[in-house]
């Protein structure tokens, strides 16, 4: 199996495999392209929204409509990440996307979120050998990822769920829940109560527009 086939089958791989030097060079070029596009986005004037959109379309593997990004952003490839419609990305999103990252529609990211699909063996001698593995990350429609959250390899976050600020998400989170902590655990379901109250005892029907 080549490098990308090993990734897809959850096998250990290296990005400098001597048996696949041409593919390794292509992957290194793709990573450099992603870093360069992130650099261009991060150094644009804040008013140059149109150029930011053009560069975002080049960076992501696919991108829907009405996607807003607050720079800076850092990605390994960019092309391995797909982004749906109506997505809001706040400052300092970091995506280690050696393999697939899928972001659905109507997803919100707070500042300083990290998504990582790549991991390494635990034993130090095995780590020294330089191999790694990658597992896809999926963030389903309507999820909200709070500030400083870290999403680890292989995690799926269900539709509509909220991940609390500073959480470390090590396992799948079901749909329509609030989950918090390190490691991240379900706190409660999202219910009709949340249709009436937007924060503690603060009611929607008491808001003056």
Automatic annotation (TrEMBL):
Q: Does the keyword Acyltransferase apply?
A: yes
Q: Where is the Maltose/galactoside acetyltransferase domain?
A: 4-65
Q: Name one Pfam family in it.
A: Hexapep
Superkingdom field: Bacteria
Keywords (alphabetical) are:
Acyltransferase, Repeat, Transferase
Q: Which SUPFAM superfamilies match?
A: Trimeric LpxA-like enzymes (SSF51161)
Kindly list any coiled-coil regions of this protein.
none
EC number from the UniProt entry: 2.3.1.-
CDD domains, sorted? LbH_MAT_GAT
* Family named by the database record: Belongs to the transferase hexapeptide repeat family.
Q: What is this protein called?
A: Acetyltransferase
Q: Which organism is it from?
A: Paenibacillus cucumis (ex Kampfer et al. 2016)
């Amino acid at each position: 199996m080549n490098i990308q086939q090993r990734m897809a089958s959850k096998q250990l791989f290296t990005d400098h495999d001597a048996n696949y030097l041409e593919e390794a060079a292509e992957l290194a070029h793709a990573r450099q392209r992603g870093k360069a596009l992130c650099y261009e986005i991060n150094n644009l004037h804040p008013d140059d929204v149109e150029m930011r959109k053009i560069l975002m379309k080049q960076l992501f593997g696919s991108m829907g409509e009405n996607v807003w990004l607050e720079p800076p952003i850092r990605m390994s490839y960019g092309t391995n990440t797909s982004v749906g419609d109506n997505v809001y990305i706040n400052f300092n999103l970091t995506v280690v996307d050696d393999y697939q990252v899928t972001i659905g529609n109507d997803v919100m990211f707070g500042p300083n979120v990290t998504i990582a699909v790549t991991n390494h063996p635990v034993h130090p001698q095995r780590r020294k050998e330089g191999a790694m593995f990658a597992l896809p990350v999926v963030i389903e429609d309507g999820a909200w990822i709070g500030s400083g959250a870290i999403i680890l390899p292989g995690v799926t976050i269900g539709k509509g769920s909220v991940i609390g600020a500073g959480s470390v998400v090590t396992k799948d989170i079901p749909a329509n829940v609030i989950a918090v902590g390190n490691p991240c655990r379900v706190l409660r379901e999202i219910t009709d109560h949340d249709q009436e109250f937007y924060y503690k005892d603060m009611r929607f029907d008491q808001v003056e527009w």
